[in-house]
Design brief:
Elements lengths: L14 H11 L4 E9 L2 E5 L5 E5 L1 H6 L13 E6 L5 E7 L5 E5 L7 E6 L3 E7 L6 H13 L3 E7 L7 H11 L5 E3 L8 H5 L7 E5 L6 H9 L24 E4 L5 E4 L20 H7 L16 H8 L4 H56 L1
Parallel strand pairs: 3-5, 8-9, 8-11, 9-10, 11-13
Antiparallel strand pairs: 1-2, 1-4, 2-3, 4-5, 6-7, 12-13
């Protein structure tokens, strides 16, 4: 495929963004979109050739408490060129239209922004032995929370012997999201997928390892732009062939972002997390007899009544309870973390005040002595 010409318009730069950027242009700064992130170094796409960028000391300092404020793949940033060098200095990140976030791996309760400013998220799941409908629901909740349109992509249908049954399972948990059955290996179903990747539109591929995200992107691009690897025959799982996020501009002007497989997926906490993904269950819960109904054992619970009557499937109900349990855990962890940070800030402020008083006292004594 011929290399596409990249312009600001190709990258989804708009009149509204240009109008808001006017004060920055007066400083001599230029706009660019982050294509690759590698710690504090970035590949930036702008109207010229790609350029390597690094965050300014001021931006790095301001983001120490909130690392999610640093540039991420998909972000629009303001940069200036370093004199006599083919490098750029990133001064600020423009407001994000959408974002895909998760909790960082481990015990730390902190947001990790994966990608930003995307329109559609392809939630990819293989329909071989690694088929995991529960993960589909969790990923869709994360996508909805970020303001992104989800599309479920069931890959490897050439390896599936019971496709109608699995399609029925996914239909029960996908709510109103489109479901596409494809094969990156044979090309079956790919035309329907390609229709979602169009000029002025950014899509991101998310899913576990070995589901074929990179293979799907290679098929869209028409060449092997991303590395792939075979899955293990023993458990149908693959290695993480993608180790970073990358924005790729296709020949038709559409843009795709690949993401690494998620070894430890945990949804990032937000006040309304999961409500859009389970809007039907939430609506039922609002009519329960008890305002604090947990929808597990209470009498006159509309959610349990719908479950018993067949209006709510067991799979969707179980996924909803699992999601609520995870959010409750994250809420508690976030509150504890905030409490610790506040105590640390209070102690730091007290120490600073004491030092200030002590210095004032010393200064007064010196003045009195002289």
């Amino acid at each position: 495929m011929a290399k596409p010409k990249v312009t600001l318009e190709t990258l989804c730069w708009s009149e509204a963004l240009e109008e808001g950027f006017a004060p920055h242009r007066e400083k001599g700064w230029q706009p660019a979109r982050v294509a690759v992130e590698d710690k504090h170094h970035y590949v930036l796409f702008n109207a010229d050739d790609p350029i390597i960028g690094k965050v300014s000391g001021r931006l790095l300092h301001e983001s120490r408490r909130f690392p999610a404020h640093l540039p991420k793949v998909g972000d629009w940033v303001a940069f200036s060129r370093v004199p006599k060098e083919d490098k750029a200095l990133i001064h600020l990140v423009l407001p994000r239209r959408t974002k895909l976030s998760r909790k960082v791996a481990g015990r730390v309760t902190q947001e990790q922004v994966l990608v930003t400013n995307v329109d559609t998220a392809f939630v990819v799941q293989a329909v071989d032995r690694s088929f995991n409908p529960g993960l589909i629901q969790r990923l869709m909740a994360m996508v909805a929370e970020g303001g992104i349109k989800p599309v479920v992509v069931l890959n490897k249908i050439d390896l599936c012997e019971d496709l109608p049954a699995k399609l029925a399972v996914v239909a029960g948990i996908a709510d109103q999201a489109p479901v596409l059955a494809v094969s990156a290996e044979t090309g079956r179903g790919m035309p329907a997928l390609k229709r979602w990747v169009r000029p002025g539109h950014t899509v991101v591929f998310i899913g576990g390892s070995g589901v074929g995200k990179s293979s799907l992107i290679n098929h869209l691009y028409g060449d092997d732009v991303l590395p792939t690897t075979e899955v293990r025959e023993s458990d149908a799982k693959g290695r993480h062939t993608t180790s970073w996020r990358e924005l790729i501009v296709l020949g038709n002007g559409g843009m795709v972002i690949d993401t690494p497989g998620m070894r430890e997926f945990q949804m990032w906490l937000a006040a309304e997390a999961g409500r859009e993904a389970f809007a039907d269950v939430e609506e039922l819960g609002m009519t329960c007899h008890f305002r604090s109904c947990s929808h597990t054992t209470e009498k006159r619970c509309r959610v349990l009544e719908s479950l018993a009557g067949g209006g709510l499937t067991r799979e969707r109900y179980d996924s909803y309870l699992k999601l609520r349990l995870e959010l409750d855990g994250l809420t508690g962890a976030a509150q504890r973390r905030e409490s610790i940070l506040n105590k640390r800030q209070t102690k730091t402020a007290q120490r600073a005040l004491e030092q200030k008083k002590f210095k004032a006292y010393e200064a007064a004594e010196d003045q009195a002595a002289h």
